[in-house]
Structures are given as C-alpha cells and as structure tokens.
Amino acid sequence: MPDEREHERDSEYPNPREEDIMAGDRRISRPDSSLPDWYVSDAAYRPIPIAWFTAAVLIQAVAAYGVFVVLLDASGWITLGLTGLASIAIYLWSMDRGLASAGAGWRIALGVVMTVQFALVVIGTSPRL
To answer: Is the pTM higher than 0.70?
Structure first.
C-alpha cells in the first residue's frame, strides 16, 4: 500500500493545508481556514441599518413602557413629556450611531415607527390628562 504522503507530494494540486488555493486572482481557500474567502470575508464588521433601527424601536418600547408604569399615579402630562424626551433622545442616539449615513427610507421609517409608539402612549395616557 503506497504511503499517502508520497502521493500528496507528487500530486499536481496544491495542498490546502499548506498553501493558498487560488482561482484566478481570487483566493478560495487558505491554510488557516476550512471555508473559502467568499464565505469568510477578511473585511471588518460593519453594522447595517436594520440593526440600528431595531435597537431604537426596542429601546423606545421598553423606555415608554417603563415611564408609563412608573408614572401611573402621576399626571398624564408628565408621562407624555418624559416619553417624548426619551423618544427624541433615542432617535438622536440612533442617528449618532450611524443611521444618519443610511438611506432616507431608514430614517423616515424610524421616525414613523417611533411616532406610532408614542401615539400609543398618548392613547393610553389620555384618561389622565
């Protein structure tokens, strides 16, 4: 039975464990990874607008719920004021994080969704006004 190592040395194909496998000018495999480059990119992580959008919507929902519950016995105007300030702060924070460089659709969608959530707080608080 011939030794496999001798066969590997004599083979015309490169050993992916020892050297890069190239397809033209693209590296499709490298010794330190079992996955091709097109699957595991060498680029740095860059958050996408949906991550900023989702974070803002969820944080606003939790903040609005918290303010609403904590201030159940207070005047409705205080609840609306604090919820409005929190919503504006969350929107501006999202713009700072990178949503300002995203497409206009993301900024408009975030404004609409946050306004709808604030409107729900207004409806819930209206009996206390």
So the answer is: no
Residue 91 to residues 30, 69, 110: CA-CA distances in angstroms? 43, 22, 8
Number of domains the chain is built from:
2
Residues 90, 53 share a domain: yes
Radius of gyration in angstroms for the set of CA atoms belonging to the chain, rounded to a whole number = 27
Q: Which domain holds residue 75?
A: 49-128
Residue among 58, 38, 61 nearest 50 (CA)? 58
**92 and 118 share a domain?**
yes
Q: What would the pLDDT profile of 63-101 be if each residue is shown by its tens digit?
A: 999 999 999 999 999 999 999 999 999 999 999 998 999
Taking only the tens place, the pLDDT of each residue in 9-41 is 566 776 766 776 676 776 666 555 555 555 555
